[in-house]
């Protein structure tokens, strides 16, 4: 995936394998991938970030929702009104404002689309991981 990423986006830093054992790569940053780039369209589990620049807020929302995944999104801005407006329109289970990995044990966490089933944490987890049963006795 990294080698194809180098063909489909600008490699800013990293992208090299670390050592000869295992599957380890340097922290890697790609910039402005092609719209159909694998590195942009698929989930990457590793120290890889893909940065895409936009001209308008509408472009950001359209790109954020143009995916089969929806676990977590991040909105980075100094404008809280913009953060709330954009967050409300992103089709994701969680939206972090100026963060992407902060969670709270009482807040439900889970994805939409192809990114998860149900919710973890809080009372939502009880519903997701249990099955109610009725027992009638006469």
Distance between the termini: 62 Å
CATH architecture: 3-Layer(aba) Sandwich
Q: How many strands appear in the DSSP assignment? A: 7
Count the helices. How many? Answer: 5
Share of residues in helices: 25-40%
* Biggest β-sheet strands, sense, barrel: 3 strands, mixed
Within CATH, the superfamily carries the name Aldehyde Dehydrogenase, Chain A, domain 2
User: What structural class do you assign from the helix and strand content?
Assistant: alpha/beta
CATH fold node name: Aldehyde Dehydrogenase, Chain A, domain 2
Q: Strand-residue fraction? A: 15-25%
The 3D shape can be described as: globular
Mean of residue pLDDT values: 87
Number of domains: 1
What Rg is obtained from the alpha carbons, in whole angstroms?
19 Å
The helix-strand sequence is: HEEHEHEEHEEH
| CATH C-level class | Alpha Beta
Low-pLDDT regions: none
Q: Tags for this entry?
A:
alpha/beta, Aldehyde Dehydrogenase, Chain A, domain 2, 3-stranded mixed beta sheet, two-stranded antiparallel sheet, aldehyde dehydrogenase (NAD(+)), Aldehyde_DH_dom, EC 1.2.1.3, Ald_DH/histidinol_DH, aldehyde dehydrogenase (NAD+) activity
How would you sum up this structure, described in words?
With 138 residues, the protein is α/β, with parallel strands linked by helices. The protein has one domain (2-104): Aldehyde Dehydrogenase, Chain A, domain 2. It is 28% helix and 17% strand. The strands form three sheets. A three-stranded mixed beta sheet has the order 1-2-3, with helices on one face. The longest helix is centred in the middle third of the chain and has 10 residues, at 80-89. It is globular and about 70 Å long. The termini are far apart.
